[in-house]
Design brief:
The structure holds two protein chains of two kinds. By secondary structure, chain A is an all-alpha fold. Chain A folds into two domains: 20-81, no CATH class; 93-302, Orthogonal Bundle (MetI-like fold), CATH 1.10.3720.10. Helix content of chain A is 64%, strand content 0%. Chain A starts with 34 loop residues before the first helix and ends with a helix. Chain B has two domains: 26-65, no CATH class; 83-319, Orthogonal Bundle (MetI-like fold). Chain B is an all-alpha fold. In chain B, a hairpin with a 7-residue loop joins strand 1 (68-69) and strand 2. The chains are: A mainly alpha, B mainly alpha. At the A-B interface, helix 1, helix 3, helix 4, helix 5 and helix 8 of A face helix 1, helix 2, helix 4, helix 5 and helix 6 of B. Chain A: Its main location: membrane. Chain A: This is Binding-protein-dependent transport systems inner membrane component.
């Protein structure tokens, strides 16, 4: 697959005269009178939606239901209440949520900055050692973060040369997420497409390096920025091992890590765990639903490379 | 225009600028050229610094630790390849390796099959289909640990647990799910398929959209059935996408940690232990840093080699 970054998968346009039944691989009929075909498809679609969103919907109902009994989960809360959130608040859930938000915001900002800077050098400049740098970036993409968890926890406890201990700090989670090969790569591919003439016109007008970068290149990269932002957020929000090994004590946990602790707390019923799970779900859902197009574009362009 | 005044090497002729950047610079400008050549490095510095500290130093440190018997306060002792031998001898790691491979292949293959059928079902341009696709995709964006917690609740191993209840409507179950060694690994695999299948669906949909409709037309003229068309036209057209995705996803699957750790922690009785959960318990719970590092390095080497092999094989295929 060689779809270039920035172009959505192009749908083959049907030539006039070709039957609509040839639009899809299965030959779904779009004719109004094909009742059987439509009915089968509606039933199957409903089933698919139930299977893939059902578990998430039960979280909504479970989070607002007082039931302490996990056998009594239902799709709709029998007795809607905020009691779970009151009890969860007593278990510091808002502190964890704040940690999560702060880490996500900080790491995402850093990741975006680092990626556009690095991509600018890789895409718009030629320099000695460029091939080696590319190889290094690719290596980091092939280096599973799980594999370096143990030494990373030691390094974070005592940064070489700087003699800093980042254990138990939010910075200890943010900095390791700051540079991500995937987003540098996506950004680089996109920046390569920008015509040199635009840049040169600006230089002729006396624009300096930073000005060219900020005024010419960056504004043109907005679609790619949306892609790496939505992927960056999802990747950061998905972090589990890193916040866990950086934390000194439970107060440093992010929400996703704290859920496991909540669950093993015997005073806590499933309603409270689900209340926390819902809180952890909502930001991902908001980001996905508002930047859906960028997300899908990123998958079809980046997946094969990663 | 301010050429000459600013002293930049830009000229009115675009071609000239490009050759200047490539190093075709005259002697008096050499000093400035030096400054220019530092610019890319200035832009790269943040990324390189972060990579150095949080990827390369830990990697090097991991390799070093894997060769030592690590003892806090007492000093590390060099033991050569002993840690690696210890990993290979350890039945816990052998079992974990088996579970990891089963899980990686089962999840990858299962997600691909489910994703393929989802894509066939949801292919089309209608607005309602777009809505269904968006809804089905939601598990992909949810954080892995959260998905794990949700499924733990759904999997509640009581005949009245949520999923058992649902199963009883169709006359199946009740199952012990994560609670029993016989069903735990399959249950973990199901969650993985549930989370990853919609992702594969999106890629297969993109592949389906790329198939030339004239091929369908031609097969229709030949009077083929839908299944013949799927088998002889659609699948062969998707094959390159599918093979690459399957291999890369299976390799990536070898690193599985979070979903297993959250769902079962490797239990019950080690029935779902995978390579990384075993590393985690060795390294962080039993503090056997040397052996855990050796196991990490081994996982890295395996995934790295497999990735390189697949990429080389892919290049070779594309070149053909």
């Amino acid at each position: 697959m060689t779809t270039s970054t920035g172009t959505a998968p192009v749908r083959t346009r049907r030539k006039p005269g070709v039957s609509s039944r040839l639009d899809t691989a299965l030959g779904w009929s779009t004719a109004r009178n094909a009742y059987a075909s439509r009915a089968i498809r509606i039933v199957l679609c409903t089933l698919a939606v139930l299977i893939f969103t059902g578990p998430l919907i039960t979280v909504f109902s479970g989070a607002f239901d007082v039931n302490r009994d996990p056998t009594q989960l239902s799709v709709l809360p029998g007795n809607p209440t905020l009691q779970n959130y009151e009890e969860a608040a007593a278990k510091n859930i808002w502190t964890y949520f704040a940690n999560s938000l702060f880490i996500a915001g900080g790491a995402l900002l850093l990741q975006l900055l680092v990626s556009v800077f690095a991509a600018y050098a890789m895409a718009r400049k030629k320099f000695r050692g460029q091939a080696i740098i590319l190889l290094l970036i690719l290596t980091t993409m092939m280096l599973p973060e799980e594999v370096i968890a143990i030494p990373l926890s030691l390094v974070i406890g005592d940064l070489p040369v700087l003699q800093l201990n980042l254990r138990g700090t939010l910075l200890g989670v943010i900095l390791p997420l700051g540079a991500w090969g995937f987003s540098i790569f996506v950004m680089t591919e996109f920046m390569k497409e920008i015509p040199v003439e635009l840049e040169e016109a600006a230089r002729v007008d006396g624009a300096g390096e930073l000005r060219v970068f900020a005024r010419i290149i960056l504004p043109l990269c907005r679609p790619a920025l949306a892609v790496i932002a939505v992927f960056g957020f999802t990747m950061i929000w998905d972090q589990y091992l890193l916040p866990r090994i950086v934390a000194n004590d439970p107060a440093d946990y992010t929400l996703t890590v704290a859920l496991a602790d909540l669950r093993s707390d015997i005073e806590v019923g499933p309603g409270i765990v689900l209340a926390g799970a819902l809180l952890a779900l909502v930001p991902s859902l908001i980001v996905y639903l508002s930047l859906q197009k960028s997300f899908l574009r990123g998958i079809t362009t980046g997946a094969v490379k990663g | 225009m301010t050429i000459g005044i600013t002293g930049r090497e830009a000229t009115a002729v675009p071609g000239a600028t490009r050759s200047a950047r490539d190093g075709g610079i005259t002697a008096p400008r050499r000093r400035r050229h030096w400054g220019r050549s530092l610019i890319p490095w200035a832009f790269l510095a943040p990324a390189l610094l972060l990579f150095l500290y949080f990827k390369f130093i830990p990697m090097a440190e991991g390799i070093r630790l894997s060769l030592y018997k690590v003892q806090p306060f007492l000093g590390d002792i060099f033991v050569g390849m002993d840690n690696y031998a210890a990993v290979l001898d350890d039945t816990a790691f052998q079992e974990a390796a088996y579970h990891t491979v089963v899980l990686a292949f089962g999840q990858t293959f299962g997600s691909m099959v489910v994703g393929f059928f989802l894509a066939l079902l949801l292919e089309g341009q209608a607005k309602s289909l777009w809505f269904v696709r968006s809804a089905v995709f939601l598990p992909v964006v949810a954080a892995t640990a959260v998905v794990g917690e949700i499924w733990r609740v759904l999997y509640f191993p009581d005949p009245n647990g949520f999923l058992n209840e649902v199963l009883s409507w169709v006359g199946a179950g009740p199952s012990t799910f994560l609670d029993h060694p016989d069903t735990a690994l399959t249950s973990v695999m199901m969650v993985g398929i549930w989370k990853h299948a919609p992702y594969d669906m999106v890629l297969i949909l993109a592949g389906l959209a790329g198939i030339d409709r004239e091929q369908y037309e031609a097969s229709a003229l030949d009077g083929t059935t839908v299944f013949q068309r799927l088998w002889y036209v659609t699948l062969p057209a998707l094959r390159p996408v599918i093979t690459i995705l399957l291999t890369l996803a299976a390799i990536r699957g070898l690193r599985v940690f979070t979903e297993v750790y959250v769902l079962t922690g490797g239990g019950p009785a080690g029935a779902t232990s995978v390579w990384m959960t075993t590393v985690f318990s060795r390294g962080f719970e039993k503090n056997d840093i040397g052996v855990a590092s050796a196991a990490s390095v081994m996982l890295f080497l395996v995934t790295f080699l497999l990735t390189v092999i697949v990429q080389v094989w892919r290049r070779a295929r594309e070149a053909r």
